[in-house]
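Same chain as my last thread, 117 residues:
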Amino acid sequence: WYQRRVHGVLPSVAKAVSQLSPYEYNEYAPIGGDPEFVKLALQLAYGDRDQSDIVALQSLSGTGSLYLIAKFLADFGTNYGRPTVYVPDPTWGNHFPIFRQQGLTVETYSYYHPETR
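reply #2:
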């Protein structure tokens, strides 16, 4: 907004925007993400459950969201102190350092049993 108001729009940006459908959203989302996306994601995850005790936001990616929750847990903990974080085994290798770098304990749990698939 400031860039457009004060300096105008770069010709390359104006051309790219002109090629978008008028229904495509091409501005930054609010800091908590797109509210409609967040609402629908909660609906998908929790269905008709009362969601008055749930706080949700949209994050950058899987890694970005893990970093956000790791930072939050490290800074604020829970009502019971700093939690132990459980990640599935197997999981992506970067999941461990994301939590450990915030000083959190990481344990694994098994969710795949080859014999029962």
